[in-house]
Specification:
By secondary structure, the chain is mainly α. It has two domains: about 30 residues, no CATH class; about 200 residues, no CATH class. Helices cover about 50% and strands about 5% of the residues. The protein contains eleven helices and three strands; from the N terminus they run ααβααααααααββα. It has a three-stranded antiparallel sheet with strand order 1-2-3. α6 runs antiparallel to α7 and α6 runs parallel beside α8. The longest helix is centred in the last third of the chain and has 25 residues. The radius of gyration is 21 Å and the shape is globular.
Length: about 300
């Protein structure tokens, strides 16, 4: 670290992150013992995020046979679901992972669907490092191609049915997949359809009465996730947005209502303590920033 930054008032010099990265090996025994204690109790400062494992039995025990026939390897699909939730879901959270995982394992179609499962697994194939062909989206032999082909088929079928929250969520994930393919115009068409469904279903409006708290959380979470995802893309691509207005439901305070955002317990190697990782603070900052920049980008896709 440059000496100019080593000032007495620099709070970073007293942080665990600095301790783990910059302290010399020959530091005194007391400092070494303190650092060892921090490493045991707060491993997130000493281990790369990529080596963490989500400690959730709903993932490690998930069975997918009810939702897909594309693949029969549950162990592989658990790994795909895990890498998706650990990485890309942290940036674009289009569905509430707790309600999704509960229904995935209970085989309930309320907050989980075959379309949504195939969209998630197709996206996960793009970021699963053990797949040497993960970038070959044109290869019909790749697992990602097969999952996405089935997702597109199910999308066409679901569009003939009444609109649902899971269809909106899947549409946004398919939007991102096409963006990864460098086919953002096609991807944004899915985002536009998902937005139209959300407005039609009233996701952006406050209900007259909340009769089902779980459903209301999922609806509000989906509305804000969609709003963030569309706004981010349109700002980045300098494209007019299909969004008419932001969701009416206020974002809950993450300190008093963290369950609205969802929580991850992460297990790091050589450590038995689960570290709590919340989407709440980051998610709220991301969304509030996009509320500002999206206000000037409303219109229609061109």
């Amino acid at each position: 670290m440059p000496e100019a930054l080593r000032t007495p008032g620099n709070a970073y010099l007293k942080s665990p992150l600095f301790e783990s990265a910059f302290l010399a090996p020959d530091r005194n025994a007391a400092a070494a013992a303190a650092t060892s204690l921090i490493e045991t109790q707060q491993p997130q400062y000493f281990r790369p995020y990529a080596v963490a494992q989500i400690a959730d039995s709903r993932i490690t025990g998930a069975e997918f046979s009810h939702w897909t026939s594309v693949c029969t390897d549950d162990k592989l699909m658990r790994a795909l679901l895990h890498v998706y939730l650990l990485t890309d879901y942290q940036t674009f959270s289009f569905f509430h992972k707790d309600f999704f995982l509960d229904d995935l394992n209970s085989r309930r179609p309320r907050f989980c669907s075959s379309l949504l499962v195939h969209a998630i697994l197709a996206h996960a194939c793009l970021i699963h490092l053990p797949f040497p062909d993960r970038v070959e989206y044109w290869n019909p032999q790749s697992l990602g191609y097969k999952f996405f082909a089935e997702a597109r088929r199910l999308w066409d079928m679901d569009r003939l049915e009444p609109d649902s929250v899971t269809t909106i969520q899947a549409g946004m994930i398919m939007n991102i997949i096409y963006n990864v393919y460098s086919m953002d115009k096609v991807g944004l068409s899915y985002g536009a359809q998902a937005s139209a469904m959300a407005y039609k279903m009233g996701l952006f409006k406050l209900p007259d009465e909340v009769t089902d708290p779980s459903l209301q959380i999922v609806r509000d979470f989906t509305a804000w996730g969609l709003y963030y995802g569309i706004s981010f893309q349109c700002y980045h691509l300098m494209t007019p947005s299909p969004l008419q207005y932001e969701p009416a439901a206020p974002l809950p305070d993450p300190d008093t209502n963290p369950e609205w955002y969802g929580e991850f317990l992460l297990q790091y190697p050589s450590n038995q303590k689960n570290d709590s990782h919340e989407l709440s603070s980051l998610g709220q900052v991301q969304i509030r920033y996009l509320v500002y920049i999206a206000s000037g980008r409303r219109g229609a896709f061109q």
